[in-house]
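Changelog-adjacent note: as of this version, every example in the card shows the full chain rather than a window. The one below runs 215 residues end to end.
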Amino acid sequence: MAEDWRPHVVQQGDHLVKLAFRHGVPPDDVWTHPLNGDLAKRRASAAMLCPGDVLYLPATPPKGLPVRARSDNRYRIQVPKVTVLLRLVSSHTDFANRAFELRGLSADDPTAHGTTGPDGDLELSVPATARLLELHFPDTGHTFPLRVGDLDPPDEASGIAQRLTHLGYFPSGVVAPDAAALAAALRSFQRDVGLPPTGSLDRVTHRALLAEHGP
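Full-length structure tokens:
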């Protein structure tokens, strides 16, 4: 029923799997709900929302589990996982085939271990409720903060700035870049990939940026 769903304004760090889990419904049921039809048409991927998006979610909280009086009650919650894809590239450090630690996953199992791929790539499976993790490389001493759900869609100015930041063309921490700074970063990127340095985000530049960074 439409009246049983209410609008939620997406915040930084929100993503579909986390929001659906907190409201006790499958992500597909949220994304295919008629009230979310316009948002689904605007966003190429349900996994990547933007702060300010309006996502409709059930207004009624999920039904609680039964409790037996004067008795121990034990429950196990199965938290869904989301996949985080990364590639670490540096002119100073080779991150290929490096052992790493992923910290801050949960209170019960706070650290996971793994090894990067031959291109410095990682595929991490993390709890949908995770927000801020740390990626640590014992061999090099490097530690990187990892914010789950922070990457904005690639058709938003904030998403373009984030991707340029990751590629080293934009200062870290910029959320709402001004037009002049964004154009300067785009010109630098265009020169490096052999495109005319117009500073405009045309289709060719957009495709090149996604090819270099990934979606």
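Structural remarks: The chain is about 25% helix and 20% strand.
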